[in-house]
């Protein structure tokens, strides 16, 4: 596939370049309204944007935020993202009040070399996520038209790794209408993930957390034959504990996945490492009264909300000699301090492991930043949790596959 460097080598000054970025960041209430709560994905998008702007391109950025239903919803507006993007770039950012309407058309036509326009949330248009190929293609054509089209030097750069597993108009269809290039962020993500699926250095240890086993079924199926150890924490561990015959009290339990977990345990033997103790409470709250109990002795009225200190030490020991690590999913409800110790301890152990450490995006990446850990301590922090998992499952990613088309 052609890269951003290929595009830059042909010159982009005076050309309008549409960039699909991943700016799907959490928002919070600020003094002047909504503001960005975690700008990690915005910062990850900057290198490609800066390269294009410094080379004189007229940059149009398409992105989404949240899951609006194909119509404008003020709470999902990218306006606060435009403000933060301008701060981080140190230059003004024009913001279109629509996706391909009058505002987008006017502002894109007024762009000067080295200027950037951010379109409103592409998911405000029903064509973005439509299952109807024609409706999706129509929206993609409107996006491509903002660049003036191929005949006027228009080009498309895919740099939203967190969206490449979606067959959406701004990810897939627009790449079929314009000369298309792989952005540096997507390139780097694929380079790292290829190491995990090829011939990784061993021991190869995977840490999985998060809420549900059902969300990770396919990746467990794919990884178990390849890994040396699979450490399981988070809410999903309780379904594994139930598969061992233990009561889990009021903890999260997917009863319909117990048989699958039992099969994994039978097939994998000692490869799967489960918590031996957990932090429990009756309420999920900052002031909750907590107790540390053995994983096979959770009281009936209690909820398991974090792995315990013995489990954290055991997980750290299992990571101590790892030459390749992939971590996806927190060990507990890390957003609340009574249940953050397990995630913090495991994250630090991942960072301290001697080999390549890959944080698989989503809540794991958010936890690294929320807990104040140094991002530089990790080999790679992915911007796309879902895309990372689907790549490791062996699925084709539409937004990557289309870049390989001539």
- The fraction of residues assigned to DSSP E strands is 15-25%
The largest beta-sheet arranges its strands as 5-6-4-1-7-8
Question: What class do helices, strands and sheet pairing give?
Answer: alpha/beta
Helix tally? 14
From the N-terminal CA to the C-terminal CA, the straight-line distance is: 8 Å
A few lines on this structure:
With 406 residues, the chain is of the alpha/beta class. Helix content is 34%, strand content 17%. It contains 14 helices and 17 strands.
How would you characterize the overall build of this protein?
- This protein has 406 residues and is of the alpha/beta class.
- Helices cover 34% and strands 17% of the residues.
- It has helices at 4-9, 40-54, 79-89, 102-109, 133-145, 184-197, 217-223, 237-243, 258-268, 309-319, 341-352, 362-370, 385-393, 398-401; strands spanning 16-20, 27-30, 33-36, 58-62, 93-95, 116-118, 155-158, 180-182, 204-208, 229-232, 272-273, 277-281, 291-294, 303-307, 324-328, 356-359, 380-381.
- It has a 6-stranded parallel β-sheet with strand order 5-6-4-1-7-8, sandwiched between helices. Strands 11-10-9-15-16-17 form a 6-stranded parallel β-sheet, with helices on both faces. A 3-stranded antiparallel β-sheet has the order 13-12-14.
- It is elongated, with a radius of gyration of 22 Å.
- The model has no long low-confidence stretch (mean pLDDT 96).
